[in-house]
Specification:
This protein has 345 residues and is of the alpha/beta class. It has helices at 3-13, 20-32, 34-49, 92-104, 121-136, 151-159, 176-179, 185-197, 214-227, 253-266, 278-282, 310-319, 331-337; strands at residues 52-63, 88-89, 109-114, 141-145, 164-166, 201-203, 206-208, 231-236, 271-274, 296-298, 323-324. Helix content is 42%, strand content 14%. α2 (20-32) crosses α3 (34-49), α3 packs across α10 (253-266) and α9 (214-227) runs parallel beside α10.
């Protein structure tokens, strides 16, 4: 048994939060001892979450046509990726149909995600009306990810009953300018703070395998903890032809498991949601994510790449003895969730 990993795990299980220095020690220890890291990450997951796993689905309400330059993204007009350079906006009927499908398959919470840096007030009002229908007529928890919104726009979403806002940091503050130059890390941090201030839950994470160093991964985890996010989407680069990262080497399954486990130690009570790149990069090791500490999955298709069917994912959870949480997220949970250390059950 690796004593460094065990000692740090016992601290986390006792309610302590790891310091950046302890996280570095954990990182070093994990390089030679993935088995122990996974064992303890799984103990931490079980301690804080039992056997429950959250499943959510998203629909790209606006796809493509984005003038930003995120180096991993198929939706930027700056890259020839085969996605139309004119944004495709789904109608109310198309979004409602996708939500009804998710509901029918047992997914309780549904996200509408837009490409682009921001949305107009008129588009926001259309989405707010739709959110009301999804909540009242379909009984779904509604999440949105619409880019960089003003404080006023965030309050409108919260007032309308949207429960959670998705806005990723993507990577560390140091590495961000190597990946995005059209907006700043601070823009992203401010957006997350605006969402939290409006009373929305925050779903914020990033993407791995984009040329970041190990230290960048740790730094992002600590920034997310400081910001008090309740759910951390973890994407693993699926290189898209035409983007600057098209030739990037994909992460190996064991590397991905190690990253998830390190995040479980650093963010013990935040949901870790494995999202884009799960199918391509983890291959046969997909079900191991839960033993690395994952407590949430994005099921169905991702924004621009195919995922797995909800039915297959639900079966995987049942086969593992895990329970998909049927609970619809509510605004009240957000208020309860934000506690002083900024980590959320
Ligand atoms: S990640 Fe979002 S902001 Fe960046 S290019 Fe893609 S759609 Fe645009």
């Amino acid at each position: 048994m690796n004593l460094t990993i065990q000692t740090l795990a016992e601290r986390v299980l006792a309610g302590d939060l790891l310091t950046p220095q302890q996280a570095k020690e954990l990182l070093a220890a994990s390089l030679d001892d993935l088995d122990d890291l996974l064992y303890w990450a799984n103990q931490i997951r079980r301690h804080f979450f039992g056997n429950q796993v959250r499943v959510c689905s998203i629909v790209p309400g606006r796809l493509g046509g984005c003038n930003q330059d995120c180096a991993f993204c198929a939706q930027s007009v700056r890259y020839d990726t085969g996605i139309d350079k004119t944004p495709k906006v789904l109608s109310d009927e198309q979004i409602l149909a996708a939500a009804a499908e998710a509901k029918r398959k047992g997914v309780p919470n549904f996200g509408i995600v837009y490409s682009g840096k921001a949305v107009s007030d008129s588009e926001l009002e259309r989405l707010i009306a739709l959110a009301g229908r999804l909540k009242n007529e379909y009984g779904l928890g509604v999440c949105m990810g619409l880019g960089i919104l003003s404080d006023r726009q965030m309050f409108r979403l919260a007032q309308a009953g949207v429960v959670r806002y998705n806005h990723n940091l993507e990577t560390s503050r140091r590495h961000f300018p190597e990946i995005v130059t059209t907006h700043s890390y601070e823009d992203r941090v401010r957006t997350i703070e605006a969402a939290a201030a409006a009373g929305l839950g925050v779903c914020a994470g990033g993407i791995f395998g984009i040329g970041e160093r190990e230290q960048d991964r740790l730094d992002m985890a600590f920034e997310l903890r400081r910001l008090g996010v309740d759910t951390v989407p973890m994407n693993f680069l699926h290189p898209i032809a035409g983007t600057p990262l098209e030739k990037a080497e994909t992460l190996q399954p064991r590397d991905i498991l190690r990253i998830i486990a390190l995040y479980r130690f650093i963010l013990p009570t935040a949901h870790l949601k494995v999202a884009g790149g799960r199918v391509l990069n983890l291959r046969d090791l997909q079900s191991w994510i839960f033993f690395a500490g994952c407590t949430s999955i994005l099921s169905g298709n991702y924004l621009t790449t195919a995922g797995r069917s909800v039915e297959e994912d639900m079966r995987m959870l049942r086969d593992l003895g895990l329970t998909p949480v049927a609970e619809v997220l509510t605004k009240e949970q957000n208020a309860n969730a934000l506690h002083p250390q900024g980590v959320v059950p």
